[in-house]
Automatic annotation (TrEMBL):
Keywords assigned by UniProt, alphabetized: Lyase, Purine biosynthesis
PANTHER family: ADENYLOSUCCINATE LYASE (PTHR43411:SF1)
NCBIfam families for this protein: PRK09285.1 (NF006764)
Any single Pfam family the record assigns to this protein: Lyase_1
EC category name: lyase
Organism field: Herbiconiux aconitum
Residue stretches making up the Fumarate lyase N-terminal domain: 64-308
GO molecular function: lyase activity
Entry EC no(s): 4.3.2.2
Protein name: Adenylosuccinate lyase
Residues covered by the Adenylosuccinate lyase PurB C-terminal domain: 329-449
Keyword Lyase attached: yes
InterPro entries xref list: Fumarase/histidase_N, Fumarate_lyase_CS, Fumarate_lyase_fam, Fumarate_lyase_N, L-Aspartase-like, PurB_bact, PurB_C
Pathway assigned to this chain's UniProt record: Purine metabolism; IMP biosynthesis via de novo pathway; 5-amino-1-(5-phospho-D-ribosyl)imidazole-4-carboxamide from 5-amino-1-(5-phospho-D-ribosyl)imidazole-4-carboxylate: step 2/2; Purine metabolism; AMP biosynthesis via de novo pathway; AMP from IMP: step 2/2
Amino acid sequence: MPPLPPQPISPLDGRYRPAVSELGEFLSEAGLNRARVHVEIDWLLYLTDHSMFGSTPLDPELSRRLRSVIQDFGQADIDQIAELEATTRHDVKAVEYYVRRKLADLGLTEIAELTHFGATSEDINNLSYALTIREAVTEVWLPAFDAVIAELRALAVAHRDDAMLAHTHGQPATPTTMGKEFAVTVHRLSRVRAQIEATEYLGKFSGATGTFAADLVADPTADWQAISRGFVTSLGLVWNPLTTQIESHDWQAELYNRISHANRILHNLCTDVWTYISMGYFTQIPVAGATGSSTMPHKINPIRFENAEANLEISSALLDSLAATLVTSRLQRDLTDSTTQRNIGVALGHSLLALDNIRGGLGQISLNTDALAADLDTNWEVLGEAIQTVVRAEVTAGRSSIADPYALLKELTRGHRIGQAELVEFVQGLDIGDEAKARLVALTPASYTGLASQLVDHILPPAE
């Protein structure tokens, strides 16, 4: 059998590429190299703008042309850096040589020695990762996450009054509304989203062991901490003054833990919706031409939610590993983070794929209000809670002498199916006030939803 032509090993770069390809703009080797070029050029310009070592600021046109190297970065540049790395066997050094070539092309060889000046590879890498991760999260992952939250918010509002039987421990429980249950998920996701959005993307630029030693030797009169802070913040990052050779990656651990937390909330959503589908609470809208089962023609499988579950699990496993391992580096530096960080795109990619599946799945379900109503109508015993609570209030108010309301209702309802007629008869015989009796007689499982509908208001944007 002849060998296949080269194939992607990861499903993210194969079967699922259309759903996650936007991440490649940032969390790929090419995206990382473009960010490295960005950092190297911005550092060089920062030094010349501050007239370091007798240099002078570039005239606006030359500065624009140098910055266009970043803006126009494409396949030819990717190939050129790969060619250089084949010789250097060092990725950041290849980028440095690439930048030096560009300086030569622009006739700027007199400032070539300011390229990578005083920098260790990690000064370039940590800033480049901060830039690419920030862009991947804010430009790609968060919009997809927001789209799911928006879809859930719309479902919460649409179904805020659709009463359904709750199931605690898998057993019939006090009714709620489908909208309120979606609102719970929206509230949870919104809290985590705020934490993700508030992430501090830290950066360091302080040399081989974080001491500015080479910088200080080159110019003992310069305020290198201020220069470092100014440069890092000019990139829109938060300056980290105390590091070893590497930026400590704590901000990454915080970010990955939060995204992993979001994944797990979404996983909970998927298992719940899957269960509601199996209970008949949701019907699935057939997709023209789609096949649910290779042998059972009637089936519409909830594959969107199942696929999302699996991808969320993979994403969280990777994110948890990243968060756990990146915060440790032997003494002043080891290289474990180099390999680890190259999997950030894989971790976010599986989460992004899950978000795509969840949004697609939510768009293919329809609430079966008849099923909800039927389930409520066969579980009148859930009103036992309401009855015993009202009796307790009546006893406290002096309108009843019932000794143990809870035991009374437990004997009536626990392990028994009772209907409306039996409950009405039971209530009519209770030693309670007439107004309380009237309230209880009028109560149905479908109307026993408390403030569920109003609670949905908590996920709505404030009125202007």
